[in-house]
Design goal:
Largest sheet: 3 strands, antiparallel
Strand order of the largest sheet: 2-1-3
Strand content: 5-15%
Number of helices: 4
Structural class: alpha+beta
Shape: globular
Distance between the termini: 50 Å
Length: about 140
């Protein structure tokens, strides 16, 4: 009798956990695409104007490796806020400190990433201001 009660209790707990996981957090399957940020095109144009430049090209590799090694995109648990990716453009000063962030879209995920990267310190870029885009899933 005790064993049957424990099995029923365990099965009930499992069903509650499974139901909770399917309804908690995460983006909705029928989520509408987020609205575009009109300021983003200007920032990407500034980034593209930095090239061709050998120092800028080398810095892209350095900054990507730094971002990945330090898992900067995992700050704030932003990835699960929407199923749509976000592209963020970081504006860096001469020391590599983020002084401005601009995203391609406007939603809670984009805001989360803007806040997560707002005070990040990357390696010093070859010139300033330096614009650094990052695509985040």
């Amino acid at each position: 009798m005790k064993t049957a009660f424990l099995k029923i209790g365990a099965a009930g707990a499992f069903m509650l956990m499974a139901a909770g996981c399917s309804t908690m957090g995460g983006p909705a399957k029928d989520e509408a695409p987020p609205p575009a940020n009109p300021a983003f095109a200007t920032e990407m144009a500034k980034f593209n104007a930095q090239f061709p430049n050998d120092k800028a090209t080398k810095y892209e590799d350095v900054s990507i490796n730094f971002n990945n090694a330090n898992k900067l995109d995992e700050r704030g648990n932003c990835h699960d806020k929407s199923k749509y990716p976000v592209v963020i453009v970081l504006t860096l000063d001469a020391s590599g400190k983020v002084i401005r962030t601009t995203t391609d879209v406007e939603n809670s995920k984009a805001e989360c990433f803007r806040q997560a990267y707002a005070s990040v310190q990357l390696p010093a870029p070859p010139f300033a201001p330096y614009l650094k885009p990052i695509k985040l899933r």
